[in-house]
């Protein structure tokens, strides 16, 4: 393909203008083919995820392949309905007319994805782009090269480049692509790069979805079910070695239960991940040496309560809890994105609300509490992308819950119908009657005559 992206985009545009992708049956056939490709190449995808990130088969299926297959299944079930023009009410001012909303594809979509769920975060947006009738170019991450390569092979073997293409490469490839005119850009990645994407998109007024990151708080209130909280937090934090955009970034634990809770949490981590993840080799690795060193530098913050062992040769850091953490510590200054869980404590929920509200709006927030008033207060007083009460991470698995951030954690949301909507323009159409015409909509001429 070289790096003549202009030519590729033009070929996609020519193909799009043929109108084939607008046919709903064509989209359904494409999604069915995509599902088949994923199913028949599951082993190869798992192997690539193992090589890139040491992901276990269990994690690879649960958090990457399975989630995408579910998304395809849900989309196939509803696509005909979503794609239909919808009749809506007409207003008094348009008496006699009928009003409709026609969803239509934007055209050529660019999807740029990160390395942490390199399969899911490239393919889930693609499902939306296909469902809505677009052509698409995917630019997966250079930090998970095996998965990107498999994606490239599978796509190029099964789809014409003028319909769906994968471009491998890093910043240069992204930058070169961003110089082209797309009709939609869907980006998942860091806040800093999100700004670069939006700036590039502004030059051509291209609409964007930005799925970004940030520090997602997890609050454990004094009335929480501690055992369940520990299990759900430990899994949400340490799955994928904490390299999850919606992982609980840090814990805020009520003073009254802090000691007891941390004890249960430690036991739970041992139950879930065993004594020594470095030896067992079953734990997801940190994506690169640079990321590893950044994470290791946080280990000197506060007091180490659990874990802390790390091995550069295996790029592995064990599940770690650090306590006595303050907002001034380095670990609290940026998104952690690794298996290190800082713990802060509080007396009064008001302090927690006030501290969180001083900072960028989180992508996710988790609250563990049995009390409805407490739940209501937190939901009412803090703005964040989405989250769970008494759970972590799972809000993103529901096709009925649009997933995305707010403020610095992102713009727009997808999953389920949301993915179809993201990649569709809603064209509003008024079909006017010709049976009669209302005179009062026209100006009256000075001599009292009407225009018609
Ligand atoms: P990143 O922003 O470094 O990279 C994401 C993509 O952008 C990659 O494909 C990369 O090649 C490309 N890129 C990097 N620099 C670029 C530049 N200057 N110009 C154009 N493109 C560029 O992010 P990452 O390190 O791959 O992923 C981690 C971040 O992504 C974390 O902040 C995490 O929270 C966030 N994230 C968010 C979600 C979500 O759904 N909201 C999901 C996963 C990850």
From TrEMBL:
SUPFAM superfamilies assigned: ALDH-like
UniProt-recorded name of the protein: Aldehyde dehydrogenase
CDD domains xrefs: ALDH_YwdH-P39616 (cd07136)
Family designation: Belongs to the aldehyde dehydrogenase family.
InterPro entries, per database record: Ald_DH/histidinol_DH, Ald_DH_C, Ald_DH_CS_CYS, Ald_DH_CS_GLU, Ald_DH_N, Aldehyde_DH_dom, Aldehyde_DH_NAD(P)
Transmembrane segments: none
Active site: 211
Pfam family, one: Aldedh
Domain Aldehyde dehydrogenase intervals: 20-429
Keywords from the named record: Oxidoreductase
Keyword Oxidoreductase carried by entry: yes
